[in-house]
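Hi support team,

I'm opening this ticket because the web form for multi-chain structure prediction keeps timing out on my end. I have pasted the exact lines I submitted so you can reproduce it. The total is 268 residues across two entries, so I didn't expect it to be a heavy job. Is there a limit I'm missing, or should I split the entries? Thanks in advance, R.K.
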Amino acid sequence: MNKAKAIIGLVVFLGGAIAGAFGAQLANPAPPESPWRGLPPVEEPAAAARLTSFLLQDDARGLARSLDPQLLQRLAGAIEPLVDIDEVMFTGATERQGDILSAYVAGGRAQSGEKVIVGIVFRVRDGKVVGVN
Amino acid sequence: MLRALRPWAIVFVLGALLSFVVTAIGGGLLEEKAVFGVHESAASRRYMLGLLQNESDTLVSLSPKTDVVNRAMQYAQSQEATGQITPISLTYLGGRTAGSLAVHIYAIEIRAAGGQRQFFPLALTLASGKVVRRE
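Hello R.K., no limit was hit. The queue was backed up. Here is the completed structure from your submission:
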């Protein structure tokens, strides 16, 4: 009798657990469908990967050699308010008519010491970084 | 009859609550550590659809609370932009979550009013489900 009760209790508990997990999914709905197509992903371009390694190594000279002043200015705007960069994670890239957009999320600390993350996107054409967002 | 069912109901509710909390916290941690990659958030996708379809109500609802003049400017911008672009593609390039902050990045392809195609990225930063930065 006690064994039967324990089994029923377990089944009821598991039923509740399934209902709870389902409820958590409902509370976090899936994104709505996009009416437009998505472009296929491409590999991370080497030129953009090189820049992210300069960012991670805190290599200002390397960045200065790789980007013209205008793009450096844009990169400064993109990483704002980060002052210390701990990590740069490649999130994805796609291509359209020779232009590759390579996306990253950089994490680190702001001047205030607060932990922040920012999005950076490099535009690569003919193996060179030609734009920063 | 109801009294007999009460203990089972309590067990069911306990199971549901525990599972809800574990799923919510565990899901958030897995997302933050990007264990299975980062999934696009519903809020960021709704924001992008609102932006490309000029739905100012959606944009205002997903932006931090602001004064009436700023909201009016947002409506005016949307009205001005209506019909000026035709979206061609919208590609999610991934993102990352850290605490209450989330970054989601998109590649957008549009045809502008003059007929020329434009292909550009947009990174959204969300804090507590609101878009606090867009560039």
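A quick check on our side: The first helix of chain A runs from residue 2 to 27. Let us know if the file doesn't open in your viewer.
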